[in-house]
Every structure is written in C-alpha cells, then in structure tokens.
Design a protein that fits this description.
Blueprint: E1 2-7, E2 14-23, E3 34-38, H1 44-55, H2 65-72, H3 78-89, H4 93-103, H5 106-130, H6 141-159, H7 162-170, E4 172-177, H8 184-192, E5 210-214, E6 221-225, H9 235-250, E7 253-258, H10 261-272, E8 278-283, H11 291-297, H12 311-326, H13 339-361, H14 366-384, H15 389-397
Parallel strand pairs: 4-6, 4-7, 7-8
Antiparallel strand pairs: 1-2, 2-3, 5-6
C-alpha cells in the first residue's frame, strides 16, 4: 500500500491524495493483476477520480464482472460465486449462515461426489456393454440399482432443504388477524420496536396490509398487519379486508388477536375457512384487565403492546411453530438456496428415475437406458458450471452489484 497524489491525466489537476494497492496475479480475487485506488469519500472526489480513470482508458465494471473473472480464471467455482452473491444480498441471519456454509465448499463437494457416483455407474454399464463375455458375467441389476438409489436419496435430501432455504430468505409469513380495534397495529409496532403502522381508536384505520421483515433467530418472520375483519365495512375498507383474506389464505401462521375469547373464537372460525395456517390465539390489551378479568381469561396467551407483557412468549411460540415445520439451522445440512441449483438437481433426479425404471423393468436396451445417466451427468455439470458457461454466467452475474 503506497500513498499517492491523484491527478487528472488530461488537465493535470490535483484531484486527491489517496492510497494505491497492487494485488499481483494469480493471488488476487480475480486471478489477474488488480490495482485498487483508495480515495476520500463523499460525492465530488470519487466522481472526479472515476471520470479521470475513464479518460485514461478504464471503464466501469459490469455487474458481477470481478466475480465472473474469478470463475473464468479458475479461482472459484460457480457454486461459490453464487454463495458470494447471496452473502452480499443476505437480509437475515439465516441467509448469512447459509451463504457462509456454501462458501466453505460443502455444497460443491457434495455435487462433485454425486457426479462421480453417477459416472461410476455409467462406467459399470459401459464395461458390460463393451465386454459382455467376460468371465464374471453381466453386471448385476442389484449393484446398479443400489448405487442409483443411493444417489437419488442424496439428491432428495438436498432438495428437501428448499423450504428452509426459502424460509431463511423470505421469512415465515405471520399474519395478524382480528376485529377492528383489537390492537393488531399496536402489536406489530411493539414487535418491530418502532412505529410502522398508524394506530388510532377509529375503527377501520388499517385498510391495507403492512408487511415487515423481522430478522429473528433462528428463522426470520414476515409480520403482516391486516385490516380488521368485520361485516359492516365501507367500500374501501372491504377492499382492504379482501387483501387481508388473501394474506390469510397463504399464511404460515395466523395470530388471531382479540380482546375476548368469544371474539377469538369467531375470528378463528373465519380464518380456518381461508387456509391451513397454524393458528396462535392471543388476547390483547392485557394492561387494561382488572383482577376479575384476569381470572376469567386464566392462562390464555395474552399481550400488551403498551407494557410489552407477553411479547417474548408470543415470539417464542411463533418461532417454535416454524422450527417444528423446518427444524433448526443446527439440524440442517447445507441449504440449496439457488433456484438454478435446485432446477439442475431436479433434472438430475428425474433422469435418474427414468434410468432406474428402464433398467429395472428392462424395457429399453442398456445403451439406450444409459443415455439417462449421461443426461444426469450433464445436469450435474450444469450445476457446477462445467457446461454452457456463457449462458450460466450471464444468468448468475446479472444479479450481482457492480462492485463485486
């Protein structure tokens, strides 16, 4: 790292005093010799330095170009490149954990092992086709079938991580439902820790769904406040209720909020008719309870957006339901977070199933059945970026930021 004065190559004007760092090939991130120029921040200085560099013959990098060059120069593989992009884009701790695990090379090693195992089966069949009269006789169907079943099981296990991967990225959809003035908006604000929704005593204040991503641990949740459910709403409010019902129909968890058990029972019945979400029933505004009221409500889950009472218990209940569905991150292997990788694995799975059916039933000659193995290997090659390089790179790096 060397201190330097930065001058415009055309005018000679002094632009800044900065630092220059050289990363010689092949030890740099891209595998090429790279020079970094560190200038002061703000707007004017970086803009002037960038303009001077362009006049000197440089050009702005394309989206993801540095990482693309690293892949093309063999510094990293395509799966690692995608993990870098996911690490940059991670909005939650769950996605950060998944990206770090992918960066460790665990996933790409598993993909390479799958490819090797399928090639081994293909080699067995090739030997049987080319040398059918060898002393040991034809290759046993049980040997081939068992090897294929093991590969299918490993692929199925990887694909089974998709719900956890999607959950880690998008969060579990948790919808607050209840009558008007039940305290749903206040509850959302209390759970978020800031005022994200307008709160008013006027019924029907919330007329649209308000969604907030909470980076809770171990899984994030998308908390949604919805319009109060009532029958005498006006035209605009009815539109908001229709939006609420769409959210309720697709929710993972619905938190039914009301001030009385009777209202909770009424809303719960309505919610159950809209979908199959898990339901958490919550009595709100427990800070207004009298001793007699508290005795009537008993041990029901209750909260107060004013005092914070019950918020931790509600959050723990929600996260326990999520963990029961997808497990905890500690119980998960590497997550297949990339839609491209999932598509390639699904193709490999389907081709293996077609091969095993043809092989087991003997409905196709062995050379023809073996084409499904070749298609499986092609899908796994596509997975790690060994084929169709230009098309795959264009798709992957189109989502990267320019600086990476």
């Amino acid at each position: 790292m060397t201190r330097c004065a930065v001058h415009d190559p055309v005018t000679g004007r002094h632009l800044d005093d900065g630092l220059v760092v050289e990363f010689p090939a092949p030890a740099s991130y891209t595998g090429e010799t790279v020079v970094e120029l560190h200038c002061h921040g703000g707007f004017s200085v970086p803009a002037a330095v960038e303009s001077a560099l362009i006049r000197a013959g440089a050009r702005p990098a394309l989206a993801g170009e540095f990482t693309e060059r690293a892949v093309l120069n063999g510094k990293i593989d395509l799966v690692t490149a995608e993990a870098i992009g996911e690490l940059i884009d991670a909005r939650t701790r769950a996605m950060h954990r998944a990206a770090i695990q992918s960066l460790s090379g665990t996933l790409v090693r598993q993909y390479a092992e799958l490819r090797s195992e399928v090639i081994a089966v293909e080699a067995l069949l090739a030997f049987d086709i080319d040398f059918p009269e060898e002393d040991h006789g034809p290759i046993g169907r049980e040997l081939v079938d068992g090897a294929v079943v093991r590969v299918e099981a490993r692929i199925a296990a990887l694909l089974a991580t998709a719900p956890a991967a999607i959950l880690g990225r998008d969060g579990a959809l948790v919808v607050l439902a209840g009558p008007t003035n039940a305290g749903k908006s206040s509850l959302l604000n209390a759970m978020v820790g800031e005022a994200r929704v307008i709160v008013s005593d006027e019924p029907g204040t919330t007329r649209d769904a308000v969604e907030v991503l909470l980076d809770t641990d171990p899984w994030p949740i998308r908390l949604v406040d919805t319009a109060g459910l009532r029958g005498d709403a006006g035209v605009v409010e009815r539109l908001g209720i229709a939006v609420s019902e769409r959210y309720l129909g697709g929710a993972d968890i619905v938190v039914v909020c009301a001030e009385s058990p009777e209202e909770i029972a009424r809303i719960t019945t309505r919610v159950r008719a809209l979908g199959d979400a898990a339901i958490v029933e919550v009595l709100t505004k427990n800070d207004l309870w009298t001793p007699a009221t508290a005795g009537i409500h008993g041990a029901a889950l209750s909260v107060s957006a004013v005092t914070g009472h019950g918020l931790s218990a509600l959050r723990d209940t929600i996260l326990a339901i999520v963990a029961a569905k997808v497990g905890r991150p500690d119980d998960q292997g590497p997550l297949v977070t990339s839609a491209r990788q999932r598509a390639a694995l699904e193709t490999a799975r389907d081709e293996l199933a077609d091969f095993r059916l043809a092989w087991r039933e003997g409905v196709l000659p062995t050379p023809v059945a073996a084409t499904h193995l070749r298609a499986t290997i092609h899908a796994l090659d596509h997975l790690i970026g060994a084929v169709d390089v230009d098309a795959v790179l264009a798709r992957v790096f189109s989502t990267f930021c320019v600086g990476k």
